[in-house]
Design a protein that fits this description.
Distance between the termini: 51 Å
Membrane topology: Multi-pass membrane protein
Main location: endoplasmic reticulum
InterPro entries: Spc1/SPCS1
Shape: elongated
Number of helices: 4
Oligomer: single chain
Order of helices and strands: HHHH
Subcellular location: Endoplasmic reticulum membrane
Protein name: Signal peptidase complex subunit 1
Strand content: under 5%
Radius of gyration: 26 Å
Number of strands: 0
Length: 97
């Protein structure tokens, strides 16, 4: 699943859960049945999971382009630099100004 697919899946999840909650509350209120309300909401949660959890091809329409291994070897990994005492003294001097 690509980044845009994840965003779309999350949006669908929120819409489905809110819709199922409103529908469940409405049906439960009209029928005066708490069990019916919970069953409708549970059905909505299951439907939401079936739609958003699997990695459907629809969610992978914008795949990332990774470097080939041979191309990745040409570009070195960035090195973490250590903070020296001179840079910390510069920070202290700029704070005193």
């Amino acid at each position: 699943m690509d980044w845009q697919g994840q965003k779309h899946a999350e949006m669908l999840m929120q819409i489905f859960l809110v819709f199922s909650a409103v529908a469940a509350f409405g049906a439960g209120y009209l029928m005066r049945d708490f069990r019916l309300m919970m069953l409708i909401y549970a059905g909505g949660v299951v439907l939401t999971a079936l739609v958003t959890v699997p990695n459907w091809p629809y969610f992978n329409r914008h795949p990332l382009k990774w470097l080939d291994p041979s191309e990745a070897e040409k570009h070195p990994k960035p090195q973490v630099s250590n903070i020296t005492s001179s840079s910390s003294s510069k920070k202290k001097a700029s704070k005193n100004k």
